[in-house]
Write a structure and sequence with these properties.
Low-confidence stretches: 1-7, 183-198, 337-342
Number of helices: 15
Radius of gyration: 21 Å
Helix content: over 70%
Order of helices and strands: EEHHHHHHHHHHHHHHH
Largest sheet: 2 strands, antiparallel
């Protein structure tokens, strides 16, 4: 495989044993992720949105329109090599991830739309992801015929299996599904629920992810630092931010209500990073993709950091507007604003 007249063949990034352990751990992460996602799905709610598909259709267009185009434009703008561009493009073409559900909760979005959008984008990925990769990979002449579309489709089919298991658990054993979706709270219960409200399944997934990152750092820390060029870091920072902003703008153009706009924004910018990493690790030969399969993890860091900043700004704005409204009401009634309960 060549890129810019250079043959791209990477040496193994880590020791084969550590590499196999990392592959197994990423497989466990994606299974937990998809079972957790399946446990949040309700067939009745999906049917309701299918019967009134405006919000869902706009959300799907934002997901599979904005992010792949953003990834392609950034790759061309930063003039990355073809294989690096394909890695970024795979990340941009992935469906939404379950992190978006917690983000939608934190930003007071429409949780039903968030869950249904994540579910439907995952199912649509079976056809949309290979199609979008085929279309955009025409812009990468040296690799367009080498992208393993068959392996990618197989990976997508296989990830639907644990998702289906989650749906079956939700439908026939709802008491067990609550163990995956129950939100963990501690002493400061109100703060935790308002800020994150992470489900048990997601916390387990994060624990495996941290363990995997430690293995990667031990096995190939120096290679990771070498591969994470300023251009890749910039793209990892710009992609989620553009997704959040244009997701909100796109839904505003079609006049969705504000709760739905915030939901579409979070769903557009949040990609299914475990799925992307698994596809890059399993579908692509190691000598071709090398340590570039770690790019989605860097994307995840920026994705969560930028979402947290947006949520914090929204909460500050919301608090300011509430105080302004209470001050106005107090002035209208002749009461002392300081005595009103904020």
């Amino acid at each position: 495989m060549t890129a810019a007249n250079t043959t791209w063949v990477y040496r193994p990034a880590v020791d084969p044993v550590i590499g196999n352990v990392i592959t197994v751990m990423f497989t466990i992460i994606i299974i937990i992720t998809m079972v957790s996602l399946g446990c949040t799905m309700e067939v009745s709610k999906i049917k309701n949105y299918i019967m009134k598909p405006k919000g869902l259709a706009i959300a799907a267009m934002a997901q599979y329109g904005i992010m792949p185009l953003t990834a392609f434009c950034l790759v061309k703008g930063f003039q990355l090599s073809d294989i690096t561009g394909v890695v970024v493009l795979v990340c941009g073409c992935c469906p939404g991830g379950i992190f978006s559900n917690s983000m939608a909760l934190a930003i007071h979005g429409d949780m039903n739309l968030s869950i249904v959008m994540t579910s439907c984008s995952t199912i649509l990925a079976l056809g949309m992801m290979p199609l979008l990769l085929f279309i955009y990979c025409q812009g990468f002449p040296s690799v367009r015929n080498a992208v393993p579309y068959g392996e990618i489709m197989l990976s997508l089919v296989l990830i639907l299996v644990p998702c289906s298991i989650g749906i079956l658990i939700k439908t026939y054993r709802p008491q067990y599904s609550k163990r995956f979706t129950k939100r963990v709270v501690g002493v400061k219960e109100e703060v935790l629920v308002r800020v994150c409200g992470l489900p048990v399944g997601m916390i387990i997934m994060l624990m495996f992810l941290v363990g995997t990152l430690i293995l990667i750092a031990v096995g190939s820390g120096h290679i990771i630092l070498t591969m994470m060029s300023p251009s890749l870091l910039a793209i990892a920072g710009f992609m989620p931010l553009i997704g959040y902003c244009f997701g909100y703008i796109f839904s505003s153009i079609f006049r969705l209500i504000h709760r739905e706009r915030r939901t579409v924004s979070m769903e557009t910018g949040c990609q299914n990073v475990p799925l992307c990493t698994t596809i890059l690790k399993v579908a692509f030969p190691e000598e071709v993709v090398g340590p570039l399969y770690l790019f989605p993890t860097v994307y995840l860091v920026f994705q969560l950091l930028e979402a947290a900043i947006i949520i914090m700004l929204f909460r500050c704005y919301q608090r300011f507007k509430r105080q302004e409204k209470e001050t106005y009401q107090a002035a209208a009634t002749g009461e002392d604003p300081k005595e009103s309960d904020v």
